[in-house]
# Entry
Amino acid sequence: MTKVAGKNQERIARRQVDKFAERRAQLAASALQTLSELGYARTSLRDIAQNSEFSHGVLHYYFSDKVDLIIQCVKQYKAECVKRYDEIVATARTAMDLKHGFSAAMAGTLRDDASMHRLWYDLRNQSLFEESFRADVLEIDQSLQRMIWRIVSQYAELAGAPLAVSSSTAYAVFDGLFQQALLRQLAGYGDAGRQLQESVESIIDYLIVEVELGERLSS
# Structure
């Protein structure tokens, strides 16, 4: 009886934890748009509550402070981004398919979700000064680096050529291109998405070794 009671208590405890995590995820998803518009520096839990359907008390119950909420929001959004790009990797049958799918997705998310990405870069910049959430930002950043590495690795495999760069270099290239394009998009340049797509398609070929060059070097 004691073992059974103990197992029941464990199950109840797990359910409570799962429900708490589920509620945090729901609140973060609902608050994401408000957060992306206000940004990190200009917002508090009270500001978020005033611009959403949730009371300050509810938000404060599930999140210790605005950093806790923002981290949860960004983690969820970036996790969805990773899923979308992984689907492109999984469905591409040729290097050209992957190149076009990747570049189109980059341009599309730039146009559709600029404010969301601005929140991410805001948070990442703040982590340079605030150590309290640096570990979470690094975790998100590393997940994005792994995502880019899966893309370029699959591209190299489909192209039948070895990669010429490291994971960190590949991530730095595309992250830099995207951040520059985001600034142009937010500044009102209508061609920011098109230029980003063209840049992604042209630069990805520089990340692999040309087969002919590789054969000459080995001979």
Q: What stands out?
A: The chain has a mean pLDDT of 86. The two ends are 75 Å apart (CA to CA).
